[in-house]
Amino acid sequence: MYTSFSLYTTKVFASAQSITSLNTILKPVCLSAERIYQLLNMEDENSGKVAELDSRIKTIEFLHVGYRYRTDLPLVFNDLTFSFMRGDKVLLLGDNGTGKTTLIKLLLGLYQPAYGTLSFNGIHASSIQSDSLRQRMGVVSQSTFLFRGTVLDNILYGQNGKSRSAVEDLIDELGLKEYIGRMPKGLDTEINQNTSGVSGGQAQIIAFIRAMLAEKDVLILDEPTANVDEETRRTIIHVLREQRYKGILIVISHQMDGMDFFNKTIHLTKTL
């Protein structure tokens, strides 16, 4: 009888423990479900936006622009006023936390100013459909992602109507023929997933060539000379210095060494 009582007691406690652990299992599930509902209920980012950019971006203007992530948080930056024109080479300087990335997200339509106006070709960004804006912009991020395939495959990814000859012509124009030629098989060098097969500097150059081939109205380079070898750094600076970009070139950096060829410099500082 005592043995039976012990067995039943063990089963009861085991069931109680299972109920207790069920809460631990269900809590993240409920949180995930809540976030899914929040996502489904999000307002379309194009809601109320009726304008489309039907011509090249020729001017970008910030007029007394300020931004904060929430109303109860301090301003990331305050009263920014400047303009860019087609043909400008712009250096965006600032230490970490000064709002360089936030400013780029404003340009891409991912954020809207807390106050002030941002406009493209005289049209307020708040009225421009996001796809219409972003398809005219190219971004090379600091963390470059390459796909499995050859160097050429990665450069041509998403490039409609572009061919190997167009890539070779661009590489020659940029003065990168020798640099690419030093890769094991040049444009036919194989890349494994996540840049394996090329160095970090080579991956940055490949991403830069891909962005240049797309001929976007605005090209944004996020810290292009950070975390690369010295040869690649000199190569990138040389190309940026010598190449005449037809659109608006914006380079984000926290250092000025070798960056004396930009015709406009925006220096962001932390707000008090």
UniProtKB/TrEMBL annotation:
Residues 60-272 form the ABC transporter domain. It holds the Pfam family ABC_tran. Keywords: ATP-binding, Nucleotide-binding. The keyword Coiled coil does not apply. InterPro entries: AAA+_ATPase, ABC_transporter-like_ATP-bd, P-loop_NTPase, Type_1_exporter. Signal peptide: none annotated. This is ABC transporter domain-containing protein. Gene3D superfamilies: P-loop containing nucleotide triphosphate hydrolases (3.40.50.300). One of its GO terms (molecular function) is ATP binding.
